[in-house]
Write a structure and sequence with these properties.
By secondary structure, the chain is of the alpha/beta class. The protein is elongated. The strands form four sheets. The chain has a seven-stranded parallel sheet, sandwiched between helices. A three-stranded antiparallel sheet has the order 1-3-2. Strands 10-11-13 form a three-stranded antiparallel sheet. Helix 5 packs across helix 6, helix 6 packs parallel to helix 7 and helix 8 packs parallel to helix 9. It folds into two domains: about 55 residues, Arc Repressor Mutant, subunit A; about 180 residues, 3-Layer(aba) Sandwich (Rossmann fold), CATH 3.40.50.
Length: about 260
């Protein structure tokens, strides 16, 4: 198999899993470790991947991955996280679901919940939950971000401040090694902070790829979050920090 044939599949695996390793790729393509290292170096030189010890990850920076591409990435992992998150949301509660493909998956997992009040700044979440007749959906105002159906800005934050939520569920673009939760859009960060300030219980849904990415704008620390739902356990040192902070980490592997 030539390099040019391997490259698209390597990139697709990196998009799906968040990270690829030299050993796994060598076994998958039945080539030597040296061959895969050259492939990853070529992709890194082209700006398609970022080399890390033992493999490569999607490149970090100041621009997020396209929304449709994010929606396709790690769909099984997001579905498992969504089911685990929905299991923590009791019926007869008021919740907020914000922008993101992970929160959209949570909305889909809430289709059969009863007597929910869901406030959202995500038009896709509102459309999903319109199928649940036992769910009242309130959409905040704000400026529509056409790329992903999100509502952001001062009007959005003012709408959020009118409520007190039992549970606020947010997503993010990255989680730093020190436990900081990060995003790309400063306006979206302000909305996420407003959600957390108005929520009795704070929940983050973030697939394992977020532990290997970075973004420039800080939302808050995992120490200020009650629960993290992910599909892959964080590094041991970050798990230890979560334990110290009494931040519960639920790992929902695909297929569960």
């Amino acid at each position: 198999m030539s390099q040019t044939i391997r490259y698209p599949e390597i990139l697709e695996m990196a998009r799906r899993e968040g990270k690829v390793t030299v050993e796994h790729l060598a076994e998958h393509f039945n080539v030597t470790l040296q061959t895969i290292r050259r492939d990853l170096s070529d992709l890194a030189d082209a700006g398609r991947l970022e080399r890390v010890h033992g493999g490569a990850v999607l490149p970090s920076g100041t621009i997020n991955i396209g929304y449709e591409e994010r929606r396709r990435m790690n769909a099984d992992g997001k579905a498992a996280m969504a089911r685990a998150c929905a299991a923590q949301i009791p019926e007869d509660s008021a919740i907020f679901l914000n922008i993101g493909t992970s929160t959209e998956a949570v909305a889909a997992a809430l289709i059969h919940h009863r007597n929910l009040l869901v406030v959202t700044n995500n038009m896709n979440v509102a459309n999903i939950l319109s199928q649940n007749r036992d769910c009242e959906v309130i959409v905040t105002g704000g400026s529509l971000r056409q790329s992903d159906g999100g509502l952001i800005g001062d009007i959005t934050k003012a709408s959020i401040r009118q409520f007190k939520f039992d549970i606020g569920v947010i997503g993010c673009s990255a989680i730093d090694r020190d436990g900081d939760i990060l995003d790309f859009d400063v306006q979206e960060v302000g909305v996420s902070q407003a959600i957390l300030n108005r929520s009795r219980r704070k929940v983050l849904v973030a697939d394992g790829s977020k532990f290997t990415r970075t973004a420039p704008a800080r939302i808050t620390s995992l120490g200020e979050i009650d629960m993290v739902v992910t599909d892959r356990a964080p590094a041991r040192d970050l798990q230890d920090r979560c334990d110290d902070w009494q931040t519960q980490v639920i790992v929902a592997a695909p297929g569960t």
